């Protein structure tokens, strides 16, 4: 068992800023990142790299664990998978800066190999997996998709861009397919896409720009309530003006995209705000009121205006959850890729009395596979909302249970008895 | 005045496997049941599907388990496949004391006519090569096996609906009031009337306990299961604390009940205990990835075993710690008690002391005398 004052989960702009802020006030600080590298999505998708690298330089004195996965939150104790074993970390305050995930929304053929998110597309560019040797690539999306298509074209890939309109971010040399995606087809992997107007286009990789949803599993494991706010990316945990999450656990904070998708600079500022509020709560911050207020102003100034308003409304306790979604999913479309459950099977379960995502899981095994709703949860909730005609925010969410990711049994079994506390770390 | 469609002969509280089995057997006997549940169907989320003869309890209870297990193949014929597998069950032990207790148990059960054996280490490892070589032996129960508990409950629901049963789910808080000729049950979905009431929820709701004036010797116990990703075939038998589902997922259960934590809360210590136990039992599982931990607070008989029978005038109770093992038996027994005021013949000869009424243990003979 390792004891520390502040633990920050996730090392994107928000987590980096929170950790360096906490350390600057002298708090013992541990920053935990799931990936091998720091910076999160900001180091993969262009736009905030400079900001993020700057934040990384300020980490002096922060203990950093990379390739470390927080799989469980048990009160103020975190179960962290490092290599083969689980370390238990006890912290006075926890800041969840776990970011947001791009969620592919189901369409016919979306589970074929070669159909990826924009982030995965950028990752493939970076690692050289998509280049001149790859087959034709189609990017479907908006402004960010345009930037990816342009970069792919520079790398010599045969790429086309699919959207209603040509975005400004798209280089003139990239062909534009005007239309809407109807389906992807292929045997095992994508071979072509079909547009709504019936035209077909060959492709080996399809990058689909998709909405990003806050990663809230750990907050939900801790019993924090979420509300649905489309401006902030969907289900966001409720938090107060100090970024402290509602729910049973005190001194648990959210920051960055995990608290609502916003600009990378706003993410960093919300990380600072959360850290300052946590420090204040722990009695470790000088000129606390003033510095918290300063952070709050900077967060408002760097946010997208509508997002700032949405966040303030959420903090004030508003319940903007009466969102009705329309989603017309053909019955043969797979909704849960792990267990191959189709929309038609979900509908049959509704007819037998299912009313919630957990019920759908019980009837059809939807969400019961390795992803444990992380991939299919949002699409299924949207489908359920549209099908039942119930606002998505009024539906019960699927349960979030540990482990937050699949974890080897041996790592769960490790003899790290919470009762046997040592006061200082042995990392 | 509620219209006639809101009147049922029997109302069953609880849409888990037990409630659905009772409804199914009543509907087959042309009694129209309604099953009500405060939430959705399926009961406990941490139901493992293991079917086992509980042999370290009175021999009569082991016989009851056997009688129930014998009903599974027939039930499966009637309602459709529920992934019932009679694989045989093993209870591996690691200590000399455990081995002595196992051999002792085998002797006692053999004397009582229950087919159960003690197998030495080599034989166990031949049956299950993936078990730890550190085991000293295992108890062997040829009748044990497993079923898919969700599929079982779903098929019972479907079959019941087809023959006239009704399910009212998401009723919210239920209140039961006795009235001349039966009961009035209020719920978030309106009022219904029923001539008889069957309680399968273990009466953990104090309001309900007061309304029906029944106290049962039950308590709430935490149960935890870890589920792994689907694995290639690893285990042929069900073990006391682990079995492999038809889907390939491994179900790992807590061997000891765990009193800590809030309802449904999964504690780190409990996960650790289950994981450590499983890794010791099946060393090759160490690298298997666990995808889910389910915890549930279930109401079970304090003395273990089964509480079944009339709990008052026109009220019947059924609470079991091994609900999946026993639900075919419970369904049939309650249906027979209600329709013919007696137990199925093969159950009369065993477990007489397990039937419980407010006045204390009562046998099937007492039930028959009631009807005379």
3D architecture notes:
The complex is a heterodimer of chains A (427) and B (372). Helices cover 30% and strands 22% of the residues of chain A. With 427 residues, chain A is α/β, with parallel strands linked by helices. In chain A, a hairpin with a 4-residue loop joins strand 17 (226-229) and strand 18. In chain A, helix 1 runs parallel beside helix 2 (49-57), helix 3 (118-127) packs parallel to helix 4 and helix 6 (264-281) runs antiparallel to helix 7. The N and C termini of chain A lie close together (10 Å). Chain B is α/β, with parallel strands linked by helices. Chain B contains 10 helices and 20 strands. In chain B, strands 1, 2, 8, 9, 10, 11, 17 and 18 form an 8-stranded mixed β-sheet that branches. Chain B has a 4-stranded mixed β-sheet with strand order 5-6-4-13. A 4-stranded antiparallel β-sheet of chain B has the order 14-15-12-16, with helices on one face. The longest helix of chain B has 21 residues, at 59-79. Residues 349-372 of chain B have low confidence and may be disordered. The chains are: A alpha/beta (427), B alpha/beta (372). Chains A and B meet through helix 10, strand 22 and helix 12 of A and helix 5, helix 7 and strand 16 of B. Strand 22 of chain A pairs antiparallel with strand 16 of chain B.
